């Protein structure tokens, strides 16, 4: 499945006619070798890969993408897509010409994605959205503006890839837009979850004065199956009305997350504010949230807008002192 996804993505990005073959087929001059193949180039690169590591590199005329185990090969594909495929064509050509390689420890790597799918489902293409998600196969995904139609489409497609979802809608009957959280069932045990309204009555359908819409946060606590470590993840969407409203909602957001769990957490979402805003300063200066896009040493399109109309208004924060060490950030 990973090979089919990669071939489709590469075919679109690089305009190549790609096909997937088993390594029982006769070798060709130019190949991408995914995982444990019988090609000698794979063995050459494998000798460089340690336990809990993955990477990609050029060996002869072939690209090798490999992890010390299958789960890590999947991580190698995500990093390869982010740093090579979706970079500029010149970057990819330079990479190939110089035979460069990238090997990284991923035993403890956790990938998260935030995606505002836009509530006007009929004007969006579920195939494009699901393909974008599938390209990265994030361990955890937070979506915003996911109404019943979107949730039906996403749960159906992502369920086939091993995801489960939590989070209810913001309206009185549990419908309406959700800040749902999708997670990989093969990697995490769900401990608990809750959706709360960003007001002083978090358990009641409500909104702060001046807010155009009811705004919520969904929080989930997880145990990672590989090592038993526990952490929390929150996903939200602040209002698009005024800065004063978002300031209030930001403080409620932090209050509600911390009332639900004392675990270290990440929070993603559409915050509808840029880095010059008081809301952002409340998050980073008052509440101690750290922006992972700034901390990550590797990045693709770090300065790019996260919203089609322009501006960086979506963030991935880690809580103060949280043991999450950002490695890669991409838009």
Task: Give the topology.
Layout: H1 2-14, E1 32-34, H2 40-46, E2 53-59, E3 62-67, H3 70-85, H4 89-98, E4 101-105, E5 112-116, H5 126-136, E6 140-144, H6 148-159, E7 163-166, E8 181-184, E9 188-197, E10 216-224, E11 230-237, H7 243-260, E12 265-270, H8 278-286, E13 290-291, H9 292-295, E14 298-300, E15 314-318, E16 328-330
Parallel strand pairs: 1-3, 5-6, 11-12, 14-16
Antiparallel strand pairs: 2-3, 2-4, 6-8, 7-8, 9-10, 10-11, 12-15, 13-15
Which key features would you list for this structure?
single chain; 331 residues; alpha/beta; six-stranded mixed β-sheet; four-stranded mixed β-sheet; 9 helices; 16 strands; 30% helix; 26% strand
């Amino acid at each position: 499945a990973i090979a089919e996804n990669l071939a489709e993505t590469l075919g679109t990005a690089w305009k190549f006619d790609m096909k997937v073959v088993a390594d029982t087929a006769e070798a060709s001059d130019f190949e991408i070798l995914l995982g444990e193949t019988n090609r000698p180039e794979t063995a050459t690169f494998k000798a460089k890969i340690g336990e809990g590591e993955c990477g990609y590199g050029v060996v002869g005329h072939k690209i090798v993408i490999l992890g010390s185990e299958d789960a890590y090969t999947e991580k190698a594909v995500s990093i390869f897509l982010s740093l090579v495929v979706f970079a500029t064509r010149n970057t990819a050509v330079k990479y190939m010409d110089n035979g460069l390689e990238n090997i990284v420890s991923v035993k403890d790597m956790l990938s998260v994605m935030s995606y505002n799918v836009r509530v006007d489902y009929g004007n969006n293409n579920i195939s494009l959205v699901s393909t974008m998600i599938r390209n990265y196969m994030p361990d955890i995904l937070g979506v915003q503006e996911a109404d019943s139609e979107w949730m039906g489409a996403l749960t159906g497609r992502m369920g086939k890839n091993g995801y489960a979802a939590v989070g209810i809608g913001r309206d009185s009957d549990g419908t309406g837009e959700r800040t749902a959280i999708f997670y990989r069932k093969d990697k995490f045990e769900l401990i608990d979850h809750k959706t709360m309204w960003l007001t002083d009555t978090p358990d009641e359908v409500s909104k702060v004065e001046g807010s155009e819409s009811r705004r919520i946060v969904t929080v989930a606590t997880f145990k990672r199956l590989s090592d038993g470590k526990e952490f929390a993840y929150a996903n939200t969407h602040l209002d698009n009305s005024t800065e004063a409203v978002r300031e209030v909602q930001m403080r409620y957001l932090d209050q509600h997350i911390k009332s639900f769990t004392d675990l270290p957490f990440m929070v993603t979402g559409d915050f509808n504010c840029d880095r010059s805003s008081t809301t952002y300063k409340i998050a980073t200066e008052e509440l101690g949230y750290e922006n992972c896009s700034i901390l990550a040493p590797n990045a693709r399109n770090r300065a790019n807008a996260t919203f089609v109309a322009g501006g960086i208004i979506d963030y991935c924060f880690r809580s103060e002192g949280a043991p999450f060490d950002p490695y890669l950030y991409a838009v």
